Amino acid sequence: MSHLVNNYSRTLSLLILLISIGISSCQKSEPFDDPNIKPDENRFTKVVLTEGMDEPMEMTFLPGKRVLIVERKGGVKILDENTGEMTLIATIPVNTKYTNKEGVVREAEEGLMGVIAHPDFEKNHWIYLYYADPVDTQHVLARYELDGNTLKEDTKKILLVVPTQREECCHTGGGMVFDQEGNLYLTVGNNTVNPRTGSSNLDERPGFENSDDQRAPGNTNDLRGKILRIHPEDDGTYTIPEGNLFPVGTEKTRPEIYTMGHRNPWRPTLDSETGYLYWGEVGPDASVDSIWGPKGYDEFNQAKGPGFFGWPYFIANNRPYNRHDLATETYGEPFDVNNPVNESVNNTGLRELPTPVIPAFIYYPYGVSEEFPLLGSSGRSATGGPVFRKKDFSKDAPFVFPAYYDGKWLIVDFMRGWIMAVTMDENGDYKSMERFLPEQNFSSAIDMDFGPDGALYVLEYGSAWFRGNSNSRLVKIEFNAGNRKPNVNASADVLAGAVPITSNFSAEGTNDFDDYDQGKLTYTWKITSDNGVSAELEGINASYTFETPGVYQVQLTVTDTKGDSNVANLNLVAGNARPEVSIDFKGKNRTFYFGENSLDYQVTVSDKEDGSTSDGSIKPGEVAVTFDYVPAGFDPIEMASNQSGAESMAVLNIGRNLIEASDCKSCHQYDSTSIGPSYAAVAQKYPNTPENVKMLVSKVINGGSGVWGEHAMSAHPQLSEADAKRMIDYIFSMNEVTPTTASLPLEGSLNPEIPEGEDGQGGFLLRAYYADKGAGNITSLAGEDFVALRNPFLDPQLSEDRKGVQLLTTPSINFFMVGDQSFIGFKDLDLTGIKEITLYLGISDRVGAKGASVEIRLDSPTGQVLGETEKVTSAPNGGFRPPAGVSRKEWMRQNSAKPTATLSAVDGKHDIYFIFKNTDAKSEEILVSVNEIEFKN
């Protein structure tokens, strides 16, 4: 018996050992712990946490699953992930306007720009805010104590002040990150004019100091255009850590500087293992190389230590700009990367700048990047992103990314909507990149970081500049090693309209990647509103009729068989239809400007509640109509800044018209005392705060007395709170500096004029915008239309789809087409009225160019043939440089082969492709170089 027990015991022990070994073996072979195994994309789930913020800028994580978000106009908000509730906890007074020397006011890029919690927040409750001082022309780094949801104003400590100018746009920076030693890194923008050439800023003429980046990023004695590194102290001051670019006491330097030579450094991050600093950097707007130097590039940069990153003398991989004397409009030699010097009259720092000049880590233009083609083409705005290290997260963190991403830098671009995972080698040098979640879009990402739970959080600003956007949101990407949550998609056929309004909802596109959940998901639609209406619907498709005016939240919750759920949200406005805005361009082409002296237009607006411009219910002053010249490379933020003034005045004019239509003028005048005070006096007496707006709205509706004298103010109970607020907003605007961007009439003739100093390679933007009056207390909705005209000569570098292209930039610019059937494509061009297309081609014996004919196709490289040119095999030879009195561009056109195609008639916007054909050429042989492509009407 004892023998049997011992044998049984040994067998049991062996079995336990084998099971133990098996379990251990399974754990070690877990695929997500293997850095060589890439997880399936369906292991990641996008979860929307909140939507509809007012210009969110940066976020920081707090204990207890809370995220603190700052908004540009000063809002400080906390999202509680446990409840989904977003709370406005404070509004920081900030400046949000530029006023130039001529008194023109525009919306500014600045405001409340950055936030970060102290690494020891759980002990000291400190957060740091970076903002534009509401009075003084400076940016401020301040520390506050945050107690729960209370930002304690009396604990404010100002650590650092950056003197700035507020006359001209742009670039603020404002990103922050702490290292493991408690040092704080702060990105600071160049605070400099965007030159209309879209190149470097080198204007040393008296009075143009704001156009000279040598006075800031290239100046060792100025904090702008830098990344600063300081050590915040407990008493609210800071010290300088060792290892910055300039030791404390170095003449003509600021010791806070860690790196310099930046244009607009954006969101920084630190690799916790190497200590290397990473950030995105927004570059200038030039779309092509030219006499001033290289085209514009955005950059993603790495600093292994302190250093000079080149701006305004170098860009990308240290491509030099040419010396430029704007007083004489002459150009000199390129700047010397081996001997960078700052000889500007506006320089207060060292003449000799630090070397070596550090080239960009990753760089890319508007067009396709030859070095990094995966980045694509189109608008660009490098944001930044975090370096992932698995060891940074606790073992309990539920969504930590797999080992495949360990050490990779995840970068995002605001405009292009991708996230790339960048791999570095053992030295930290660039090795490769790949698209992360290529089926997903992350456009308008203004901040991105990993949260304590291991998920990747992406803060999205929204689609329109300088306004709250309903599509601004905070999303997070969760990695699921086990059961995967559903991926939820919600849509509706109608999202706004007069009551009753019936909306049909659909969850089409929702899926779950676990086999056991197929066909077993449950769908719940929850409808809520502040007006008390609520409803719950079930099913993939649902329908609901909204009878009561209000703003409704429609939330779709999809739950799988394991009980895991995910949501998607829609906002619906019942009781107010969205206005329809239309620009009648009188049949002219809506893509190209052909040099017309005048362009006729007519703007019409119709709105179900407000009426229309045709019947006079919508007044001309309530519609913003703007017309701008757009340089060949342009900054969309600056353009929006210009137009926002006209939009603001159009909205404010609704308030003025409400005043004019009321009995208010019997007691009040705009700028003189009557029975009651003038509106100007009211605006002077009360600061424009939310509290005062609410108080005055109440007085307008309910009446009051005793503030300005014995005469009582009449009540106006027939007014809605929304209309009363519009009236108060207009009154407050009277004592503010009024934007001087004038709105155009609803109908007229435009006189396109190319501004002095422009090369004419840009175009024009006509835009109409109307924000309706809402309906009672129902929110206002906006509509817009625009016509964007460009020069009819297209540069091939702007092509968005390519095959067989070889771009050389030295000693001159050559855009070579290589091999039979090579092609370039342009997106979304209006072909209305286009009769011919001429290509300006170079065919040089020096490169063995074979010549080509060109086939023009519609919508794809294999689409309908619109026309074909004759085959050209030679081009005129006019020498190496233009003769006196002939511009380089005109000389180039004179010395090009000019094959021309007559087009079949096509209307409307299409993609258009140019296929270069020569069946006798080998695949590696050059056919032609493309100089320009001209569209003719």
From TrEMBL:
Residue ranges annotated for the PKD domain, each copy included: 486-572
Protein name: PQQ-dependent sugar dehydrogenase
Residue ranges of domain Cytochrome c in the record: 650-735
Gene3D superfamilies found in the cross-reference section: Cytochrome c-like domain (1.10.760.10), Galactose-binding domain-like (2.60.120.260), Immunoglobulins (2.60.40.10), TolB, C-terminal domain (2.120.10.30)
Basic and acidic residues composition-biased segments: 202-215
Segments of skewed composition (Polar residues): 192-201
UniProt keyword annotations, A-Z: Electron transport, Heme, Iron, Metal-binding, Transport
Lineage: Bacteria, Pseudomonadati, Bacteroidota, Cytophagia, Cytophagales
Species name: Algoriphagus pacificus
Region entry Disordered, spans: 192-222
Recorded superkingdom: Bacteria
InterPro entries: 6-blade_b-propeller_TolB-like, CBM6, Cyt_c-like_dom, Cyt_c-like_dom_sf, Cyt_c_ID, Glc/Sorbosone_DH, Ig-like_fold, PKD/Chitinase_dom
